Amino acid sequence: MVSPFSLALLLRLKIVNGYANVVKFYNMRHLFLVFFIVQSAFAQNSNVFDCSRSLRIDFNLLANAQRIEVIFQQLKSEPHWGGSHTHLVFPNLGNLRLQLFDGETLVFSKGFNSLADEWMEIEEAKTEKRLFYHAMQIPFPKKKLSLHIDKRNREGVFETIASREIDPNDYFIKEEKTVAFPVKKILYNGEASKKVDIAILAEGYTQAETEKFYADAQRMTDYMFTISPFDKLKNNFNVYAIAVPSQESGTDIPGKNIFKNTAFNSSFYTFNQERYLTTNSICEIADAASVVPYDQLYILVNTETYGGGGFYNHLNLGTADNDLSEKVYIHEFGHGFVGLADEYYYDWDPTFQEMYNTKIEPWEENITSLVNFESKWKDMVKKKTPIPTPRTPKYKNVVGAFEGGGYTSKGIYSPVQDCRMKSNEPKGFCPVCERAIRKIVDFYTK
């Protein structure tokens, strides 16, 4: 028997972490308690934030192999806040996070990933520094708040790397109007605060190719909602297509001496990896996206070349016209929306073996070091399944712990032998990834 006091504590913890869907297990008397707690959270947030609009915080991460620092760039008032009005403390995911405090009280927290993390691991970073631009929205503050940007250390513990005051009356907050690019609603199911809002932006589409962009965005969206668990969650999403014109079609492919004049200056061969498609034009992307409420940004690149990139709560990129584009689209969305790890791994390159500290549990939901397997998907493993689980035909369609994942061949384990986060062969995501997706959708929509 759960006491009302214990239930209140449980529900408060669940709500803070975005998982308030436990109430169905309790009777109507307890439902009133749930309603009261949710209303209290809303009231508390409404005293601190104006959720009818947002404040965009732009900053650069300056990094080399030894250190990373934050350089604040600008603050911008924007007309939409796409997130929840009640769930403002995101699950504890990401290599970095942005937090806001009202005195000693945490009022906002959102994890994210950066290309800077990968830059710090490569040889070039030992002798050079590089800037990586970020733009993060928060609900517009009603009062002065303390902002912290934190980064996980090698032990998985967050350390503050920058802090500053956010004053809503700061006259340096920009309120300039940006270009209102044409927008088409690809999918619309209701109020932004209760939906996952995806903004798909055109990259490498000329003005004459606007209709092609809309058709490509529709095709990617249609495919996504044929894949489990998105097929059962379609009513929880809004999708907007923003037609940002480029001077030329395509994207940069430096390895083939191809360079195009495009809106967001996207490029393959990031860190000299042929298929790695990224951009650092984050300020321009955020300006263009500000015409709609959004939770996720997806850059759809007008090329038939294979590739993409995805960064948790930062940016997703994929191409439109490759035979595998639809599959890559949801793979990258798994990174950007859920923070899922890549489940493929390399035996031939020893540098990848140090990507993860195997003495601690990685934060990603779909890989484990087995240090704290109970916190991951141990509850989904059948009793007769050995841990670790052999990569043999006997366990082909079984949830277990298969060595190899997160680019690392030893000491990191994946839930299944193959998943959309490993390759393009499976139809979709494994049960562990599906559960992680549902949790995040619930966070935004419940």
UniProtKB/TrEMBL annotation:
Source species, domain of life: Bacteria
Pfam families given in the database record: M64_N, Peptidase_M64
Residues in Peptidase M64 N-terminal domain copies: 51-160
Phylogenetic lineage: Bacteria, Pseudomonadati, Bacteroidota, Flavobacteriia, Flavobacteriales
Name under which the protein is recorded: IgA Peptidase M64
Molecular function via GO: metallopeptidase activity
